[in-house]
Each structure stands twice: as C-alpha cells, then as structure tokens.
Write a structure and sequence with these properties.
The complex is a heterodimer of chains A (1058) and B (219).
Chain A: H1 3-28, H2 49-52, E1 68-74, H3 79-82, H4 99-107, E2 112-118, H5 125-134, H6 157-163, E3 168-173, H7 175-179, E4 186-190, H8 200-215, E5 220-225, H9 227-235, H10 240-259, E6 264-269, H11 285-288, E7 289-296, E8 311-313, H12 317-324, H13 348-376, H14 382-408, H15 414-441, H16 447-470, H17 477-503, H18 509-527, H19 529-534, H20 537-546, H21 551-555, H22 557-578, H23 588-593, H24 601-619, H25 647-674, H26 683-707, H27 717-744, E9 750-753, H28 754-759, H29 772-796, E10 803-806, H30 811-830, H31 836-855, H32 866-882, H33 909-919, H34 921-928, H35 932-945, H36 968-972, H37 974-1005, H38 1012-1057
Parallel strand pairs in A: 1-5, 1-6, 2-8, 3-4, 3-5
Antiparallel strand pairs in A: 2-7, 6-7, 9-10
Helix pairs in contact in A: 1-16, 1-37, 1-38, 9-10, 13-14, 13-15, 14-15, 16-37, 17-18, 20-22, 20-37, 22-24, 22-32, 24-31, 25-26, 25-30, 26-27, 26-30, 27-30, 30-34, 30-38, 31-32, 31-35, 32-34, 32-37, 34-38, 37-38
Chain B: H1 2-25, H2 27-30, H3 40-62, H4 73-100, H5 109-122, H6 124-131, H7 135-141, H8 150-169, H9 186-209
Helix pairs in contact in B: 1-3, 1-9, 3-5, 3-6, 4-5, 5-9, 6-8, 8-9
The chains are: A mainly alpha (1058), B mainly alpha (219).
C-alpha cells in the first residue's frame, strides 16, 4: 500500500464519523423558531374600552406609571451578594457589602424590595441579555455563539422602547452593541471579554453615569457593570478583590439614588449568579440565583415586603418593565407581570382591578404568541395547547363578566373581591403553565436524524474494526465470520420453531428472527472465543462505553477512567503471567522441579506498572469539580499563580514550574542524544538544541510577568502590559518556526560518509608543500586515511565503503517527539502555570505506557495490539480530567483565549482555537503521539539487545547488518509499514468511535432524562468535539510519519546518487 | 479417590461459606447494634478472623498438601513466622494497590486497611495454608496448567473470584442512589465476600464438571 491511500482512507473514515456526528447533532440539539412579528401600540389586544379611554398620552396597552427607568445590570450579582444580614459578625468578602439596598428596603418598605431573580439556564451573559429583553427562553446551542453576539431579530424591549419614541442610553458591556446595533440614543461601550480586566468597564461607566443622569436627555438608561463577574472569574467570590468591587458598586448605587427623580424607576439586577469558583454557564442553584432590586421615590408596593424575598423568573422583568413604562410587551414574551408593582396607592379593590387588567393584557399577549407560534412550528404539543386555550378563554370570559359587574356597582361587595383574587390566580396559572409548556417542548428532537446519526457512527465503527482486521486478513475469514454464525442462527431459529410447534403457540416472526439473530451472534462469538479471550481489553472498552449511560458515572468519569486504565494494565500483566509468557521456556530440568524461573524483565515490567499506577494516582490531584459532587474541592493547582497570596509559595511554585520545563527540555534532548539524533547541524537539530531552551525562557518570562501582583509594579505597569503580550507571541512564533522546520526537513540524521573522503584524500592545500609545517600536517592525514581504508578493507572483506548514519534508527520517533514537545510547550502556555505538573505526569505516563507496550512480547511487530491502543486512549481521556477539565461549560478555561491577547478579539476563530486547544490538550498530544505505539518497539529494539550509541546503516541492501535495524525495519517493507499505520489509525478511530457511539446512544436514549442538559448533552458535545480534534490530530501525526518517510526516501536516493 | 477428594473439598468449602454467613449473623447476639452495614469495621474484623481460623483449622485437619518430609520444630516455627510476615506484607501491598486504584489516601485509612486485610484473608492466607511461604509455588499455581491438585484449582478459582468481586464492588460507588452500602469500602468488601463465596461454591462444581479434562502433573 502506498502512503497516500492510507491517509486518504483514514480521512475518509474520519469524514464518515463527522457526518454521523453532524447528523446526530442537528437532530439532538434544540432549536426554537424565532418569530419575526412584533407588537405595536395599535394591536387589537385592546383592554376593555372603559379603561382605554383613561389611558394617558404616551401609553400603550396600559397606563404608563413611570416616564423614566434606570436599569443597572451588575453582571453575576448573586443573590447572596445583595442580601444584607446585620446580625452577621464576620462576613465573608462577598457578604454584607451592598448595604444601600438593605437601608432602602428597611427605611422605605413601600418603595424598595429585593427579589431572588431566577435566571434560566444557560447562564451565559449573552443568553441572559436575550432573555432579559425578549422575555423568551434561549435554547441550548446558543451557548456556542457567546463569542460573537448576533443582533437580536426577535421583538424585544429595546425595540419597543425605540419604536415608541423613548431615548435609550446605554453604557457598559459591549455585548449589547452586537445584540442591539443602532438602537441606542447614546451609548458608551467598553470591551467586555478580557476577564482579567476588572476595572475598565466599571470605571468607564462611572465616568459617564452621573453626568448622563443629571443631563436628563434620556428615558431609559441601561448600565451593565462587569467588574463583579470578572472578579469572580479571576479571583473567585471569596477574595478581598470581590469585597472591593462590591463596595464600589454599593457606593455607585448610593449616589445614583440621590440623583434620581420622582418619576424614575430604578432596577438593579444580576443577569446570573456564580459558582464557588466564580464561573457560570450551567444551571446549578448558585448560577441561576441572581438578585433583583426595585426602587422608586414614589411608593410602589401596596404592602410591606414578605419575610423571605420572593423568587421570580428572569423573563418576568420584560412585561413588567414594558407595561410600567407604557410600551407594548414584546411579541414573543412568555414572562408574567410582577403584579405587586401595579397595585398603586389606592385601596385593595382598585389595586386588584389594576393588577387584573395587566394580567389580562399579559395573558392576551402570551395567547397571541402561542397561537402564531403553533402556526409556524408544530413542536408545542396540541393537547397542551388546547388545555391552555381553554384556561385562557374561561379566564377571559369571567374577566368580562366581572368587569361588567364592577362597572355597575360603585361599592364592590366582598364576595366580588374574592372572585377578583380567584381570577388573578387563574390568569397566573395560565401564564405559568404556558411558560412550562414552552420550556418543556423547546427541548425538541428530530428522532429520525438522531437514529440516522447513530447508525452512521455505529456503522463507521464497524467499518473501522472490519478494515483493521481485514487489512491483515486470513483467507478463511469469510467462512469463520459469516458461514458459521449463519448456521448457528438457522439452528437457533429452527429450535425456537420446534418449541413453538410443541407448545402450539402462534409463531411470532419477530421473536423467531431476533432469536435467530442472537443465536448467530452467539455462534460468531463462540467461534471466535479464543480470539475474544485474547482481546480482553475489549471488555474494558465495553465497561467504559457502558459508563456513558449512567449520569452518575459520567459525573464520576474523572475517577472511572483511571480505574479502568489501572485495571487494564494489571489485567494485562496478570494475563501474561497466566499464559506463562513472562517466564522463560521451561527446560526439562526445571520442569521436573515444577519451578519456572522468571525472566529478569519481569521486574522491569512490574516497576513500569507500579510507575504507571503512581502516575495515574498522582494525576487525580489536578481534577476540577462538578457541582453534582458537593463535597468535592477543586484542585489548588488549577488557579493561576497570580491568585496565590503568599509570596513565598508563589515563588516556590514558580521555580518548580520553570525547573520542570527545563527538565522536560533536558529529558527530550538527552533522549535524542542517546539515539544519535542530536548530532547533525540541520536547522531542525539546531532548533532543538537552542530553540527549545529559548521557548522555555519565554514561557518562564511570561509566567513571571503574568503571576506578579497587579499593583506592586507601579510604574512598570505599561511595560508589563507589553510583556504579557510579547512573550506568548514569542512562544507562538518559535513553536511555529519549529513545526515548519520539522515539516520542511524532518531528518535528524547525521551522516558520516566515508566513501567521499576515501575518494578525495586531497586536502585543501594547493600546490607544492612549501614548508616543514605543511608536511607535518598533510602526511599524518594521508597515513591515517590509508590506515583506515586498509582497516575497512580487512574488516568488510568487500572493498565498498560505508556511510555511518547516526540517528537513522529512530528518525521517525525523533520527529514525533520533537513535534510533541513543541505542542506540549504551546499547550502548557495556555494552561495555568501549575498545571505543567500535570503535563509532566502526562509525558511520563505516555512514556511508561510505551515502555510497557514494548516490554510485552508480541507476535508480530507490525500490528499494535488492542490493549495498547485502548490504554493509550484511556490515558488521553484520563488526562482530559487531570488537566483540570470537565465536560461541562462552566469548567472551560476561557482565560486561554487571552494568552497573548490583551483586548477583545476581532474574530471568533482565534479564541476558539486557543480555548479548544486548551480544552483538548491531552487529546491532541495523545493523538499526535499515536504512531509512537507502532514505532516504539522498533526504537527499543536496540536498548534491549545491546547498549550502543551509533548505529551503522549499510548503504547496500545486500550487506545489511542484522542487528540495530530499529525503525529501518519499517523501511525494509514499505508495504507492511503503510498497512501497519493504517491499521493503527483504524484501531484508534474504532476505540474513539466506540466511546462516541456510547455517548451518542446515551444522549439519544436518555433525551428525556432529568440530567440530559446537565450531564449527557454537554458530555456528548465534549466527546464529539474531542473526537473531531483527536481524529484530525491523528491524521496529522500519521502524515508527519509519512512526511518523514518521504524525507528518508529522498535521503537514501541522494546517497545512492552521490 | 478423586471423587472422595472432591467431596472433601466441597465439604470444606461449604464450611467456609457457612462460617462467613455465621460471621455476619452470630455477632448480633453478642454485640449490641451489630450489623454488617452499620458497624462495618467490626464485621470486617470478625469475618477476617473467622475465615482465617477456619482455614487454618481445615488445613490442619485435612492436610491437603502432604509434605513428604517431617520437619523439625524450629523449622516449623520459622515457617510460621515467615507466613506471618508474608501475610502482613500482602496486606500492605493490597492497601497500596487499593489506594493506587483511587481509594482516599489519608481519610478512612482504617477502613482501607481492614479491607486489605479481608482481601488478604481471602487470597494470601489460602495460598499460605496450601503452599506455604513459597513464592515460586505461588507463581506456578497462578499460571495456566499450573495447578497440581484439585485444592490448587480451587485456590485459583476462589482467589480470582474474590479479587473480581472486589473489583466489581467498586462499580456502584459513584451511583447516586444514596444507599448505606455505597460508602467506601462497604460495597467493595461485600463484593469481595460474595465473590469469595461464589468461588467456594463454583470451585468444586467446576472441578467435578471438568474432572475428565483435568489432569494434574505429578510432583
């Protein structure tokens, strides 16, 4: 097989998988159809005529209560931040900081109130802004578009305000700019995405806030503060910085309240909460629990606040604000008005009537939306719509009756009052049920596509497996694989048929056929029983795939994967022992004694296994936590060094990290030197010698600059700002130079051509030797040369000279090792400093795995056994967790997007690549390193037989020295080499595909499971992305080997030509 | 001869199984509040001690491994001490392996160690009883075609079953069922116990079933 077909075949298989993933994803990830319609003032949603007449000018749908409103959004304002408990003696940094809210609420209970503000997941800022303005629920996939906010197409609060001639002024987070382009009367945007920057946005707002408020040139003012959120991301809530930030917010609110007029409504809202680590995005209690504070100088509420703050869904803000400001409710709103804000200062009956009218409007609007939505899309279940419709019409009917009665009488009788209350309850019930129906059914799937995707992935898996086996097929393959199973199936079917005949039951065709299928499968496995026994790692793979179907196991996967890896390796050793392959073949004497003496390598193997187990265990100290395991504490190594408070610890860790990097470079260089790959003066080798330390230096400098305290540097601040950018770019540049060099000339071979020099003894001295000195110089040379050629002649017998090539035996692995090291540096740069320990463990574990794989005797060197591939992939998934990741969105290290970038990105591509590389670091490294599984046994061939540095490679194929062929054995039989690479790639893809298939099936089967959006869907997304990344990297790794192979070929032909 | 021996093996194994069941039930009459789940550590100790003593007694009574030569008293003592050391070492080794498999390192050390002791009782102690402190013999027994008597076959089966049971016992730990037996190391020790008992019952049956195929090499 040639080189290209191998890569093409693998690429084709990858594409098959990608198609399956895409198909499944399109059916699985939820979509909601956005309606283009929008509400307007003249809509026939008219309230009863007697009320309409009393609508003041400038009001639509309901009388305007406030002419102005200030909406302060404090990003990630968790409810606990806003709550004030005067009894608390020693509050945490985030507690009791917003005292002004408490003072207002206690001193003016009818003017101010604090609510729990329940955000709908996903709790990413953009989705929350969408929810806060459109009043609808964004669906799952929207999370992905966080980098680029698209303009909101649906009807929304801002559009309504603008439509009705209100001047909207905005300041703060520039996400709004993308969402509402050209909607604002005046705007002050500040870059939002650099989470390390705590102050730019807030200081910018504060600069403009009071002048704008005082100028009076606005009707609605929105200010979106980001400092609290960024502080959470950078330091976590439990940090003195957070106290500072919240105190700043407190001061801001205190002075803002003094600037407000009587006709102004003040709303302070958090768009979402934050977890204990300061992240958000998911749907845990801490993330969805935000705060809302309402205040006005005129009395708002009819009664005092309840004991415990009320919980209201976030979408409820939209209709409330719309009606309070006298604009139509946005078309797609499914929120419910907050009735107590409409009670006014009249008696209870008029308050109830007023509430009833806003409920009526709200219900009519929701009903209109549901009707037009059900016309466009069929995803809302018809019977539930019917039920809602009934609820609605009966409530409306009663409403009209009641109004007629109320209008008739001047004095409302008490029983009417209770009917009023009951009617409000019915409207409430309608609105809540409508919301619940929408929430539920916007989890809508396309079963056909899902099944199709599943089948595609499954058949691709099967194809991989078959192809990997067929690539070295035996001629009796079809007979044993097809004929016997079919016979088995026939026999089984016949037996069942007989049983049916005897029991005289009706013949169930389906049952018979399934019985036959099961029997034939049994036949297959029976026939391959011995072979299955060899392929015991499949059992481990089976457990791994089975674990994807239980949410508990997905949650605990960080512990499950190492467990399985350890079991796999232990089982492997146990099995080898059981088969007696670790013992020396017994001599007759020993047989008599009943002893079997062990090879010495057993101790080596056991040491390797112990090292592997230790590596696996140590790597569990780097785990991130999921909220499902409450007692879990995230690893201390995950936080960047900058967050350490003790300077000594910081310095110590910094030194350790840098020493580790240096050690890594030293290890790689000495490995290369050991195999003679560090001798030539090619640019690549020079890069390895001098470029690697330079990269390490740059990384060390970057870490030093990044981890230094922000304030301590004072005047150097600007320099630091530059350095933070420059050093990562230097690393990127150096690494890409290295990779380019690797691609251009991957040969790390140092050739000493004795033929050439034997032909031309002539030294560069021209003319007659003029002096004694020259003679002294030349003559010994001639003598030496003659002596050497004589020696050669005597030794070799034939008088052909040889070429000594240093490092030819490990030329493939050397290229891969260099590439892996460079990638490792890049990925370490993207992670927080102390995770480099995890990377060290990763490299060590990979090394140990390779050695274990090598030290186990295998039948054919050209086929990589399954256990090696499976353990390799298990290690890859294990280190996904051990580099501080979890398959959930809040656990993504967004900081990685800002390594080397200071301000916002102009495109989405670069940050996506950086974050993706950070997330799938271990997948990348292990996939690129996959061909090492094939190469390593060849490389280690020498070290096991004889320790000797230079390896001589005879140019003439006839005279090859049999030992020390190493990787050149692969070149010996290019056919086998290509096939072996293909089989390795297919096996890798099969194992990856099996895991993916399990994930896909789990997501499909359990799509109505309680945990699907929390556990299975994110797991599926991460697994499929991981599959894509892994398969691409696998292709790259194999192509790199191919590239080296090409280079070796040209090198040989050049040698021949010379 | 062989039939009789299989019967003896069956009787011995059944005795062991009964002793384990008794170890779970009987102490409740003497100790207040004793239960396998509630006072798991006590049960671990009781079970280990029961199985150990019964095994030693059975070994002394049945003498499955006929040692050809008579040995001196001093030799016996040294053998015994060696056995003790081996047992202790195997406990430590099991502890280390369990920790490497993901058991907590510092918390619940007692539990982990007692679990290691239980596992050693089920595996190492049997080996010590049958084969003595002779690692070469152990290595021989635990390889293909290494068993030389039905006792050794039984040893193979029970050991593998106990370890497999402990391994499978780890599976329910992450599940969110909130059952009392999901706490470390209860599910694993229960798994090991059930595995051991299953091994005890399977071994004579399997040997009986395969008695034609089983041909033991003579010493």
């Amino acid at each position: 097989m040639q080189r290209w077909p191998v890569v093409l075949f693998l690429a084709w298989v990858c594409l098959l998988f990608f198609a399956g993933i895409g198909l499944f994803m399109s059916g699985f990830l939820l979509t909601r159809i956005e309606l283009a319609s929008s509400s307007s003032c003249s809509d026939p949603l008219v309230p009863p005529p007697w009320e309409r007449q009393s609508l003041p000018p400038g009001s639509c749908w309901a009388p305007q209560r406030f002419s102005k409103a200030v909406l302060i959004i404090i990003d990630a304002l968790h409810f606990e931040f806003a709550r004030f408990d005067p009894a608390k003696v020693s509050p945490l940094p985030y507690e009791n900081k917003l005292g002004v809210l408490y003072q207002l609420a206690t001193s003016q209970p009818r003017h101010a109130r604090l609510y729990r503000f329940r955000a709908d997941p996903p709790t990413a800022t953009m989705q929350r802004i969408k929810g806060l303005t459109t009043g609808s629920l964004p669906t799952f996939i929207d999370v992905g578009s966080n980098f680029a906010s698209y303009a909101i197409q649906e009807d929304n609060l801002l559009a309504q305000l603008v439509q009705n001639g209100r001047r909207v002024v905005f300041m703060g987070d520039d996400t709004w700019e993308g969402l509402f382009p050209k909607k604002f009367f005046r705007s002050y945007f500040f870059p939002s995405f650099n989470v390390k920057d705590l102050h730019t946005v807030d200081d910018g707002i504060l600069q403009h806030l009071y002048p704008t408020v005082d100028s009076g040139e606005w009707d609605v003012l929105i200010a979106h503060f980001l400092g609290v959120d960024h502080c959470g991301h950078k330091h976590g809530p439990d940090h003195p910085e957070m106290a500072k930030k919240l105190t700043q917010m407190n001061e801001m609110l205190r002075s803002l309240v003094d600037h407000l007029g009587n006709d102004t409504l003040l709303l302070v809202a958090g768009d979402h909460g934050m977890t204990e680590t300061g992240d958000h995005g998911g749907d845990s209690e801490k993330e969805v629990n935000a705060a809302l504070f309402v205040y006005s100088r005129t009395p708002l509420f009819g009664s005092g606040p309840p004991e415990e703050p009320e919980t209201i869904p976030q979408v409820n803000l939209v209709p409330t604000v719309a009606l309070l400001l006298g604009v139509p409710i946005p078309y797609s709103n499914i929120g419910e008005v907050m009735a107590e804000l409409f009670s006014g200062d009249g008696d209870t009956v008029s308050a109830a009537l007023q509430q009833l009218s806003v409920y009526h409007i709200n219900a009519k609007q929701v009903d209109r939306f549901l009707q037009s939505y059900s016309l466009v899309a069929q995803d809302l279940p018809a019977e539930q719509l019917q039920h809602l419709q009934e609820l609605f019409s009966s409530a409306v009917e009663e409403h009209t009756q009641l109004l007629a009665q109320v209008q008739g009488t001047m004095l409302v009788p008490p029983e009417l009052e209770s009917r009023l209350g009951g009617l409000i309850g019915r409207f409430q019930r309608y609105l809540r049920e409508a919301r619940a129906v929408c929430t539920q059914s916007w989890a809508r799937f396309h079963p056909l596509r899902m099944v199709g995707g599943c089948i595609l992935i499954a058949s691709s898996c099967l194809l991989c497996y078959m192809a990997s086996e067929l690539a070295a097929s035996s001629h009796s393959f079809y007979r044993s694989c097809l004929l016997y199973p079919l016979l088995w199936g026939l026999v089984g079917a016949a037996l069942l048929g007989l049983a049916h005949v005897f029991t005289q039951e009706g013949l169930d065709l389906l049952l018979v056929s399934s019985w036959a299928a099961a029997a034939s499968q049994l036949g297959f496995f029976w026939h391959w029983w011995a072979w299955l026994g060899l392929a015991f790692p499949m059992g481990i793979l089976f457990f791994r795939c089975g674990a994807m179907f239980s949410d508990s196991f997905v949650v605990a996967e960080a512990r499950v994967t190492p467990f399985l890896l350890a079991s796999l390796v232990m089982l492997l050793v146990g099995k080898l022992h059981w088969d007696g392959r670790l013992t020396v073949p017994e001599g007759p004497k020993q047989q008599l004694l009943g002893f079997s003496s062990y090879r010495r390598e057993i101790w080596y193997l056991l040491c390797l296994v112990a090292m592997l187990l230790v590596c696996v265990r140590l790597s569990s100290f780097f785990h991130q936590c999921r909220e499902e395991i409450p007692q879990c504490r995230p690893s201390v190594f995950l936080s960047p060094l900058a967050s350490l408070r003790s300077t000594r610890a910081k310095n110590l860790f910094y030194l350790l990290c840098v020493a580790l990097l240096a050690g890594l470079v030293y290890a790689v260089q000495s490995w290369l030197r050991h195999y003679g790959n560090l001798n030539s003066s090619d640019p690549l080798v020079l890069f390895v010698r001098w470029g690697f330390p330079l990269v390490v230096l740059c990384i060390a400098c970057y870490w030093a600059v990044a981890s230094s305290a922000d304030d301590s540097l004072g005047k150097l601040q600007e320099l630091v700002q530059v350095a933070v950018i420059v050093f990562p770019w230097a690393v990127y540049g150096l690494a890409s130079v290295g990779l380019l060099l690797l691609l251009c000339n991957p040969m790390t071979v140092f050739a000493k051509d004795t033929r050439e020099s034997a032909g031309s003894i002539v030294t560069p001295y021209l003319g007659v030797p003029s002096s004694e000195v020259d003679f002294l110089h030349v003559i010994p040379q001639i003598y030496k040369r003659m002596q050497e050629s004589q020696k050669n002649r005597l030794e070799r017998g034939s008088c052909r000279a040889t070429v000594a090539a240093y490092g030819l035996g490990s030329v493939y692995s050397a290229a891969l090792v260099i590439a892996l090291t460079l990638l490792g540096f890049l990925l370490m740069l993207l992670h927080s400093e102390r995770l480099s320990f995890a990377f060290l463990l990763l490299f060590m574990e990979a090394f140990v795995l390779l050695h274990i794989h090598t030290s186990i005797p295998i039948s054919s060197p050209f086929s990589v056994p399954w256990y090696a591939v499976i353990s390799w992939i298990l290690a890859a998934s294990q280190f996904f967790y051990s580099t501080g990741h979890q398959p959930i969105f809040p656990a993504i290290h967004w900081n990685a997007a800002f390594v080397g970038f200071h301000l916002d990105h102009s495109t989405n591509f670069l940050p996506a690549v950086l974050v993706g590389a950070n997330t799938f670091a271990s997948h990348i490294l292990f996939a690129v390193g996959c061909p090492l599984l094939l190469l390593w046994p060849f490389v280690c061939e020498m070290s096991s037989s004889q320790k000797k540095k230079p390896k001589k490679e005879s140019r003439e194929e006839l005279q090859e020295v049999e030992e020390h062929m190493m990787e050149m054995r692969l070149r010996e039989s290019p056919e086998k080499f290509s096939t072996a690479l293909l089989r390795l790639g297919l096996k890798y893809l099969f194992v990856l595909g099996a895991q993916l298939l399990a994930c896909v099936c789990a997501a499909m089967i359990l799509r109505r499971h309680l945990m699907v959006w929390k556990v299975f869907a994110p797991k599926f997304l991460f697994e499929s992305l991981g599959f894509v990344v892994s398969s691409i990297c696998l292709l790259l790794g194999i192509s790199l080997v191919m590239r080296v192979d090409c280079a070796v070929s040209t090198w040989f032909s050049q040698l021949r030509l010379r | 001869m062989r039939e009789a021996e299989i019967r003896r093996l069956l009787a011995a194994n059944l005795l062991c199984a009964v002793s384990i069941i008794l170890a779970a039930l009987v102490p409740a009459f003497f100790l207040d509040g004793f239960s396998v789940l509630g006072t798991h550590l006590t049960w671990l100790c009781v079970c280990s001690v029961c199985v150990a003593t019964l095994n030693i007694i059975l070994h002394l009574v049945l003498k499955p491994s006929q040692s050809p030569k008579r040995s001196s008293f001093a030799h016996k003592i040294s053998r015994f001490l060696k056995c003790c050391i081996y047992f202790f070492m195997s406990c430590i080794l099991f502890h280390a392996i369990i920790v490497l498999y993901g058991a907590p390192l510092i918390e619940s050390v007692t539990e982990t160690f007692l679990f290691a002791v239980l596992l050693s009782t089920f595996t190492t102690l049997q080996c010590l009883c049958l084969l003595g402190p002779n690692v070469q013999a152990w290595i021989r027994v635990f390889s293909k075609n290494g068993a030389m008597s039905i006792w050794e076959s039984s040893l193979q089966i029970t050991t593998v079953c106990s370890i497999l049971g402990a391994w499978f016992g780890a599976f329910p730990i992450p599940l969110d069922w909130d059952r009392p037996w999901q706490v470390w190391p209860i599910s694993c020790s229960l798994g090991a116990t059930f595995g051991y008992m299953a091994g005890l019952i399977i071994a004579p049956l399997w040997i009986h079933w395969n008695r034609k195929q089983l041909t033991y090499k003579s010493r």
